[in-house]
Sequence to fold (141 residues):
Amino acid sequence: MLETLSGVWGLFFSAFISSTIAPGGSEAVLAYMVSEGHYQVAQLVVVATVGNTLGAMTTWGLGALAAKKFPIAALLPKKKQNALSFVKKRGVWVLFFSWLPVIGDGLCFAGGWLKLPLLPACLVILSGKLGRYALLAWLIV
Fold:
């Protein structure tokens, strides 16, 4: 029981860290745990999704904090302001792609910096991450 619980917590923390600015490999951890067959697949997908979404929302929060101290116009060159206006123009829906490697964390940070609505942002991020983990688990089973 304790081993099972520690494995699930390990997946949660791996997923959380993977969705912040720090690199991580939650997909590999999930794939390993699914392939072992010691856990319910749905439980693993939910744990990974929740951890990864909370990590993304932490990054969103860091973006919101950065916006208070560093206004966009004062900090970024014109070219990067255009990239942020792309995110702003498409709104929270662009956050669906927060699961993508490399750019996903930046999307979450930009969402916070641009003060995109918290609850819709969280739900869109969650749906993208759930889809990714569910597809991965389905491919492994």
About this structure: The first helix runs from residue 2 to 18. The helical segments are 2-18, 26-36, 41-69, 72-75, 78-90, 103-113, 118-140. Residues 2-140 form one domain.
